[in-house]
Design brief:
Layout (H helix, E strand, L loop, with lengths): L4 H23 L10 H4 L4 H18 L7 H30 L3 H11 L5 H7 L2 H27 L6
């Protein structure tokens, strides 16, 4: 467990960030009053997500690899974070959609139908907890792998002889 302590710590920081982000989205009305703008602003979560991965890999490089880290070591570290985040993502979905913003699905279904973008049946199939859990699992894994691959390039540091 000590080998992946840094990754587990940062995975939990990542999950906390996601939950706080969802709380902020709800408080500013992106899950209700301004739901029509949700699809735009929700993408900005990529900024703190990338920052967390950078900080995590820098932490791993400094405190586990004594200041040097290969691309492979950084990428594997990012993958471990991704796996932990992916495993925990259904819990964060439940916290978000059942506790923080329980009216989200009702609101987004109504908006989708009223705007003509989806039929009620299609909206109800897409906007529900099971669908979001599956999307969350896939999204966490895909985005985590991509982020890990890119961030590992910038956080690697080889020994200079």
């Amino acid at each position: 467990m000590k080998k992946i302590a840094v990754e587990v710590k940062w995975a939990f920081i990542f999950i906390i960030m996601i939950i706080l982000w969802m709380l902020i989205e709800r408080l500013v009305g992106l899950h209700s009053t301004h739901i029509d703008q949700h699809y735009i602003y929700t993408n900005f979560i990529a900024i703190p997500a990338i920052i967390i991965y950078v900080l995590a890999l820098l932490d791993k490089r400094k405190n586990y690899y004594s200041g040097t880290m290969t691309y492979k070591q950084g990428f594997v570290s990012g993958l471990i974070i991704t796996v932990v985040v992916t495993i925990i993502s259904p819990v964060s979905q439940v916290i978000t959609l059942e506790l923080i913003t329980p009216d989200y699905f009702t609101n987004v279904i109504e908006y989708s139908v009223e705007s003509g973008s989806l039929t009620r049946e299609s909206a109800e199939e897409y906007f529900n907890l099971n669908s979001y859990m599956i999307q969350g699992l896939i999204g966490a894994m895909v985005m985590g792998i991509v982020t890990s691959a890119i961030v590992a390039i910038f956080t690697r540091k080889v020994k200079v002889s």
